[in-house]
Amino acid sequence: MSTKLKCPFCNRPEVFRPIDERTPEPKDHIAIPRVGKFWQALPNEMRGYKIVPILNESDHWRISLYKGHPGTGKYFTDKFKHFKLDLIGTDYELEPPEPVAVPFFLRQEGFTLSSSKPYWNMEVQRPSNPYWMLFNACRISHDKSDVVINAHWWPDHGNIFSIHGFQPTENSNKDLLITKEAMEFFRVETRGAPKIAQANLIKAIKEEGERATQRSIAKALKISDSTLRYWLNREGKSWGEIKAESIRTNVA
User: Fold this and answer.
1) How many Å apart are CA 67 and CA 3, to the nearest integer?
2) What is the dihedral of CA 172, 173, 179, 180, to 10 degrees?
3) Is the bond leading into 118 cis (omega within 30 degrees of zero)?
4) How far are the Cα atoms of 50, 97, 213, 233, 242 from residue 196, in angstroms, in the given order?
5) In angstroms, rounded to a whole number, what is the distance separating the alpha carbons of residues 165 and 146?
6) How many Å is the maximal CA-CA distance in the chain?
7) How far apart are CA 35 and CA 134, in angstroms?
8) CA 17 to CA 211: how far, in whole Å?
9) Contacts of residue 196, Cβ cutoff 8 Å, sequence gap at least 6
10) Structure letter (DSSP) for residue 122
C-alpha cells in the first residue's frame, strides 16, 4: 500500500449525485460480500455473496441497489424496501487500503462478470492491465423522504457521514426515523452471524504481529475459536489472508 494515495472523495461531492434514471441497465456484474442485516437471502445464491450490476461512470464505478431492482429481483428485506444504496468506487494501479468498519465497503482485484445466468456459469472478464477496485463511498436515499446520507472512508480520517435534505417541519419525526433506519446499513453484524467488528480484529492482529494465531486472537477478542473460524468462513477468507491484510493495514 502506498502512503502517497489520497482520499478520492473528500473534494468530489459530484460523485454522490443520484444516478440518471435514463441510464441503461449495466451489462457487467460484480460479486460483493453479503454482509449486513439489510440483505434479502435468495435461493441458489453464491454463498456469502451477491452478484450485482456495476456501472462504469467514466472516472468511477457505481453499484446501485434497491429492493425492486429491474431484472435482479429482491436485494433488501422488507424493513429496508424503500431504501436505495449506491456504492461508489474507483480504480487504482497500486494496492489501495483495505476498508474497515463499514461492512459493505470493499477492495478487490479489478474484474467484472458477464451477465449470463446462473452465477456459476458467469464468465470472468479480466482486464489486460491488472488493477484494483476500491468501493469506499456510498449514497443512501429513501423513496418516501428527501433525506440522503452520504458516507465515505479513508484511513487518514476514518468514516465521514453527511446528512442532506432534512427539513425542520412537521415531518421531522418521520425523517428522523428514516435517518436512524438508514444508519442500520452500517452495522457490522448480520443476523445469526458472529458479532465481530473487523476493525477490532485487525487491531488485535496488528498488536500481536507475526506471533498472532487464531487461538490468541480469539482470546484477545473474548470469543471462542469456533466463532472466529465461522466468521472467517462467512467472510470467505482464510486465517492467513486476514492476518496478512491486517498486518499491512493502517488503523488509527
Assistant:
1) 38
2) 160
3) yes
4) 21, 20, 16, 13, 13
5) 5
6) 58
7) 16
8) 46
9) 188, 189, 221, 223, 227, 228, 231
10) P
Residues 12/88, Cβ–Cβ less than 8 Å = no
Residue bearing cell 491488472: 130
**What whole-number distance in Å separates Cα of residue 233 and Cα of residue 105?**
18
pLDDT one digit per residue (tens) for the chain, 252 residues: 445 688 889 888 888 888 777 777 777 777 787 777 787 776 666 667 777 888 888 788 888 887 555 544 567 877 888 899 999 998 888 888 888 777 788 888 766 555 545 444 455 555 556 678 899 999 999 988 999 999 999 988 989 999 998 877 766 788 888 998 999 888 765 445 556 777 788 889 999 999 999 999 999 988 888 888 877 876 667 898 889 888 887 654
β 106-109/132-142 pair status: antiparallel
Report the alpha-carbon distance of residue 39 to residue 224 in Å, rounded. 26
